[in-house]
Amino acid sequence: MNLFSNRYKVKPPPKFGIDNSIYQGIKITYLCPVSDPKKDGPSGGVKVIYKQSEEINKLLSPHFKSAVVHPEEINFVCNWFEYSTEFKRNLYFNINNEFVIIPDFWAERYAPQCILNNIKYGIFVQGGYLFGNENAASTLSAYQNAEVIMTISDDTADCCKLAFPTLSSKIMRMHFFVDSTIFTPNQQKDTIITYMPRKLPRHSKLVLFFLEQYLPSDWKVIPIHNMTEKEVIEKFKLSKIFLSFSELEGWGLPPIEAGLTGNKVIGYTGEGGKEYWKPPIFSEIMMGDIKGFVKEIISTIHKMDTNKELFVNEKAIDQLADLYSKERESNDIISLSKKISTVLSI
Question: How far is the CA of 242 from the CAs of 237, 308, 324, 337, in angstroms?
């Protein structure tokens, strides 16, 4: 989600206010950036925020209620994936029973307002390599005053522990549910390679340039860009290979979705992906090894064409689905709710 890190620096953040209304139960409000595929491309991090808020309402209602607020564009809603998320249309927060969750790249932007107004908050870290973009003192203050530091992967949790060694007790790993009943493989696939062109474009252009001389005439490469979730699923179901150009990402959602839909995933782990980057679905290429990247694609195509292999390994897909199952997500959300209840003394 680092594409959002610099977008709003040109203007000051909108001001928070205090909501004095009486409410039974606990509110969990997620601050969320705007994600418009036509401008920036879809953001997996925004999808995670929407879906986690949605799941809190499904799992913990009526004692907990959750909503998403877009502070920079208060009436915005995403339109590129399906959800039943609820929305907050103001920036007034109840200091008695409302807990605010701030995305990591906005920690320095919105944590000071929470501190000033005595609003309890946590920080959701989906990118463990965004530290160092702000003033070190303001970053440390934001994290020290957070009640919980949520992390999207083991790698992100390790980054937070390295950055804030005295705050390890606040760090909480959150698993995200990736629906394997939606991202499911076709038995009949086409000779298609998919990739995301906005990720490390120089690398992807070089890989495709070198690959062009060796790509069989019946194979084609399709970029997945500015597409809705439904369109991406359709492409993943048809493709046999997905190329990953992840760069220092906290997790990496598209490679998981591609793997669940029966693709052989070749490329960079982005570090966060190391927790699931295992054969036979995933083949790791070291960052910058363009020649090795191309040779691995050529080898994989040859194996598929020669042996008619699709690399649709049901056991491996089931293991991947289990790692990001509904049960794991639910257990983490329950742990988070208990933490927030304690913080708010409710």
Answer: 11, 17, 19, 36
Record the tokens describing residue 147, joined without a space.
């009640």
What are the per-10-residue average pLDDT scores of the chain (346 residues)?
A: 49 93 91 75 84 97 96 93 95 97 96 97 94 87 98 96 97 96 90 94 97 97 92 95 94 95 97 96 97 98 83 88 97 98 93
Q: CATH homologous superfamily of domain 192-323?
A: Glycogen Phosphorylase B; (3.40.50.2000)
The answer to whether 241 and 297 have CB atoms below 8 angstroms apart is yes
Task: Write down the CATH number for the domain with range 2-177+325-341.
Answer: 3.40.50.2000
Give every CB contact of residue 13 below 8 A, 6+ residues apart in sequence: 71, 109, 110, 113
What is the strand order of the sheet 220-223 is part of? 220-223, 192-195, 241-249, 264-271, 282-284
* pTM to 2 decimal places: 0.92
CATH 3.40.50.2000 region(s) of the chain?
A: 2-177+325-341, 192-323
